[in-house]
């Protein structure tokens, strides 16, 4: 059995549901039941006795896009663990691209970032190449970048603080840098931060990194590590937008692609394409009066 919850355009929802129901009638995922959730007039729940998640998501994309959706095999519940990417997920920017602008290198660095997030380049090589381009940039540029450029995405703090209030452990894990992530985590409310460290000497970036690389395998390892502490029955939600988020998205109970690159979106069983991050609270059936503002 599959259960899908989605938020789509309310003005066309009934017509779109009728069309999808008709298209799935003789497939492996016929619509057995569909209704709006009582607590919220925005969330449509669709149930099917089938188990072909790819077919169901294809139908939802065909009939409801853009939508905010989660498809699950088990009952929905608030996760015990939330692990999220930072750049272009919890914040609206790619920190390294914005920092590179202070060295007049944004276009060059951003082009590498885009290819890495699309999965076209090896993440570690692309990271080291971009960091090397920043050699000699003053460390004060990081502070200016944070103050002038870096902003949380709409709903990020409400999502994280509400999940915490529900007993969920929250971890920010990024292929970006602690110089940014520590501040962002404090601003949004994450309890733990895992990321890369820029090497600084004499107040300037050396163009190198300190310690190991936080990459896709690290992100999944952090999710696995945190889940192990919570016990066998723990439920995880992971959110990201790029190729390096795919392993943790695939490993989570609810793997969420936030305005994501195609490969990351294809790997997820949930996505936010339409609203802000509070859409996830609605899909998890957390009433708005319970949200932590």
From TrEMBL:
Record Gene3D superfamilies: HAD superfamily/HAD-like (3.40.50.1000)
GO BP, one annotated term: L-serine biosynthetic process
UniProt-listed Enzyme Commission number(s): 3.1.3.3
Necessary cofactors: Mg(2+)
InterPro entries in the cross-refs: HAD-like_SerB, HAD-like_sf, HAD_sf, PSP
Pfam families: HAD
Catalysed conversion reaction: O-phospho-L-serine + H2O = L-serine + phosphate; O-phospho-D-serine + H2O = D-serine + phosphate
MF (Gene Ontology): L-phosphoserine phosphatase activity; magnesium ion binding
Residues of the active site: 85 (nucleophile), 87 (proton donor)
UniProt KW keywords: Amino-acid biosynthesis, Hydrolase, Magnesium, Metal-binding, Serine biosynthesis
A GO-annotated cellular component: cytoplasm
Pathway(s) it belongs to: Amino-acid biosynthesis; L-serine biosynthesis; L-serine from 3-phospho-D-glycerate: step 3/3
EC supergroup of this enzyme: hydrolase
Keyword Lyase listed: no
Presence of the UniProt keyword Metal-binding in the record: yes
Family assignment from sequence similarity: Belongs to the HAD-like hydrolase superfamily. SerB family.
Protein name: Phosphoserine phosphatase
């Amino acid at each position: 059995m599959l259960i899908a919850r989605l938020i789509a355009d309310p003005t066309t929802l009934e017509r779109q549901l009728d069309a999808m129901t008709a298209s799935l009638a003789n497939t492996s995922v016929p619509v057995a039941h569909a209704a709006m959730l009582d607590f919220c007039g925005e969330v449509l729940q669709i149930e099917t006795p089938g188990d072909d998640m790819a077919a169901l998501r294809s139908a939802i994309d065909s009939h409801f896009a853009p939508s905010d959706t989660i498809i699950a095999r088990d009952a929905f519940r608030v996760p015990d663990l939330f692990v999220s990417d930072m750049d272009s997920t919890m914040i609206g920017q790619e920190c390294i691209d914005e920092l590179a602008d202070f060295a007049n290198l944004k276009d060059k660095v951003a082009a590498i970032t885009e290819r890495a997030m699309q999965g076209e380049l090896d993440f570690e090589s692309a990271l080291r190449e971009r960091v090397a381009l920043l050699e000699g940039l003053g460390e004060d540029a990081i502070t200016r970048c944070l103050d002038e450029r870096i902003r949380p995405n709409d709903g990020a703090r409400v999502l994280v603080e509400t999940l915490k209030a529900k007993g969920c452990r929250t971890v920010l894990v990024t292929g970006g840098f602690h110089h940014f992530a520590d501040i962002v985590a404090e601003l949004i409310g994450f309890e733990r931060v895992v990321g890369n460290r820029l090497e600084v000497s004499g107040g300037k970036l050396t163009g190198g990194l300190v310690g190991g690389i936080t990459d896709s395998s690290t992100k999944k390892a952090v999710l696995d590590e945190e889940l192990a502490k919570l016990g066998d029955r723990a439920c995880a939600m992971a959110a990201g937008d790029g190729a390096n988020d795919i392993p943790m998205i695939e490993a989570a109970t609810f793997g969420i692609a936030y305005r994501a690159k195609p490969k990351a979106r294809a790997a997820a069983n949930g996505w936010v394409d339409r609203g802000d991050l509070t859409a996830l609270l609605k899909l998890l059936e957390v009433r708005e009066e319970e949200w932590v503002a």
